């Protein structure tokens, strides 16, 4: 049976190498900044990708990205001129008397026109190019990003490019998250990057281990009921990475074919990168691809599930997961996810990996069971040291059946301040919530737990037995109405407080 018709887009990468790291997120004033990553455009230039979200009602006035003193963003310059939403000034310390943009550092500046005056949770994508020399300079010093709203609110953050957007040296293959080695060919998953336009770029590294040059590569894409327009970086028919291809699309079969135009030497362990764009909702629902390599008379085919790194598909989650994100904080990596609906959902196991391949369970968060409204969850990984960590959710039904969520990568850039008190799930979506105690605080003689409402009334007070590390509290027994509460832990002469949200 043929899958539903899916139209999809190719993205043209004129490069020898690609690299995109996990998202780095920072906030300041009413701005949220994301460094989506970096790709090697060619041996001389690197492409950076940022998004900026306005969290308040005031509209975006400008955004400025730091450049080394005396430098400008690299070619192709026409990319900047094609953006009709912004006036772009390349290599400016200030707006030279026009009083629209004023930065203390040399920058690539985007001055918003009325059509791009985003606010109230809206975000926009900014892409630009740096020479290798300029990229390496900013990787050593950090890269400042400054924004201003229409009412004069200014935000400024510093990104560590080494932590968020490290690019491999020219001529080197990018790191991959996992691979399927079939002897005559090796298929590896590089990454999947989601963009504000609702699309996700998925990239594979393919090694041809035969002695014959690759002649064709086929990728069958996931199902979707929401097709998007076909396009590519070069008139809809060409694709260029290390080697050159023409592309054809079979809409009925959801199949794209990369036909060799010049693949001389693509044999004996040589590699190339193949990238496609699919709707983000389709990718999150069905991250399974069928990839087939042709090299002369040799045919090598495999399924590739980019979530499980196996050759078999998975069924959709019993919950409709609508978001799964992470952010670096002083308390650890904060993970947030939400569901649009849940069926027989016992809960989630939060799993962490250092390489994107081997995962360990670090926490269990109770689910809402059955729900037809949006439910939000949060968990802070207080044990995540500096560096990039990979996370996924293992959703389990009451019957014991389970499925995995998409994998995300989060870079911890801050030193962690360990809390002795944790409260989860938060919001408390089921009948129980858990209070966790760390560092043996319950061994002290005067340890007590209090819950207070926003009017300061104590609605729960309990002495904590020595050695207690976890307390499971029942909402039905506490008889707490929906609202916001403060959970206070008193030990010795110290007090720690956490906010608890009980849905109404």
TrEMBL record:
Residues 423-502 form the Secretion system C-terminal sorting domain. Residues 1-20 form the signal peptide. The lineage of its organism: Bacteria, Pseudomonadati, Bacteroidota, Cytophagia, Cytophagales. InterPro entries: Ig-like_fold (IPR013783), Secre_tail (IPR026444). This is T9SS type A sorting domain-containing protein. Pfam families: Por_Secre_tail. It comes from the Bacteria. Gene3D superfamilies: Immunoglobulins (2.60.40.10). The keyword Signal applies. Coiled coil: none annotated. Keywords: Signal.
């Amino acid at each position: 049976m043929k899958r539903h018709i899916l139209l999809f887009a190719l993205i043209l990468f004129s490069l020898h190498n690609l690299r995109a790291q996990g998202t780095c997120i920072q906030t300041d004033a009413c701005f949220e900044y994301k460094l989506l990553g970096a790709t090697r455009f060619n041996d001389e230039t690197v492409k950076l990708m940022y998004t900026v979200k306005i969290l308040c009602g005031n509209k975006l006035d400008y955004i400025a990205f730091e450049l080394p003193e005396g430098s400008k963003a690299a070619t192709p310059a026409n990319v900047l001129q094609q953006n009709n939403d912004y006036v772009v000034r390349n290599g400016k310390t200030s707006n030279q008397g026009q009083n629209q943009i004023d930065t203390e550092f040399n920058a690539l500046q985007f001055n918003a026109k009325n059509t791009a005056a985003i606010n109230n949770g809206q975000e926009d994508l900014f892409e630009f190019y740096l020479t290798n020399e300029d990229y390496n300079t900013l990787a050593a010093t950090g890269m400042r990003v400054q924004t201003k709203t229409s009412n004069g609110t200014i935000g400024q953050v510093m990104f560590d490019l080494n932590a968020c957007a490290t690019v491999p040296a020219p001529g080197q293959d990018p790191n991959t998250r996992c691979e399927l080695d079939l002897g005559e060919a090796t298929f590896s998953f590089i990454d999947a990057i989601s963009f504000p336009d609702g699309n996700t770029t998925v990239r594979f590294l393919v090694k041809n281990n035969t002695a014959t040059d690759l002649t064709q590569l086929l990728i069958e894409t996931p199902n979707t009921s929401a097709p998007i327009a076909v396009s590519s970086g070069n008139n809809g028919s060409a694709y260029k990475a290390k080697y050159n291809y023409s592309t054809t699309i079979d809409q009925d079969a959801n199949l794209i074919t990369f036909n060799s135009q010049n693949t001389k030497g693509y044999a004996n362990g040589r590699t190339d990168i193949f990238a496609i764009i699919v709707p983000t909702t389709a990718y999150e629902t069905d991250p399974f691809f069928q990839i087939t390599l042709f090299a002369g008379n040799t045919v090598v085919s495999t399924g590739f599930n980019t979530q499980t790194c196996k050759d078999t598909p998975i069924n959709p989650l019993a919950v409709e997961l609508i978001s799964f994100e992470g952010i670096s904080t002083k308390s650890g990596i904060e993970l947030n996810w939400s569901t649009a609906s849940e069926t027989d959902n016992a809960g989630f196991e939060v799993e962490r990996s250092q390489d994107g391949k081997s995962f360990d369970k670090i926490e269990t968060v109770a689910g809402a069971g059955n729900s037809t409204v949006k439910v939000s969850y949060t968990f802070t990984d207080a044990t995540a040291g500096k560096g990039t960590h990979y996370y996924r959710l293992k959703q389990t039904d009451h019957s014991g059946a389970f499925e995995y969520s998409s994998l995300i990568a989060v870079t911890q850039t801050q030193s962690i301040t360990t809390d002795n008190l944790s409260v989860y799930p938060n919001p408390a979506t089921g009948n129980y919530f858990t209070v966790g105690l760390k560092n043996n605080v319950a061994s002290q003689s005067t340890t007590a737990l209090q819950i207070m409402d926003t009017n300061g009334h104590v609605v729960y007070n309990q002495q904590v037995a020595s050695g207690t590390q976890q307390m499971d509290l029942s909402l039905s027994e506490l008889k707490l109405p929906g609202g916001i509460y403060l959970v206070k832990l008193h030990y010795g002469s110290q007090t720690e407080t956490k906010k608890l949200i009980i849905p109404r």
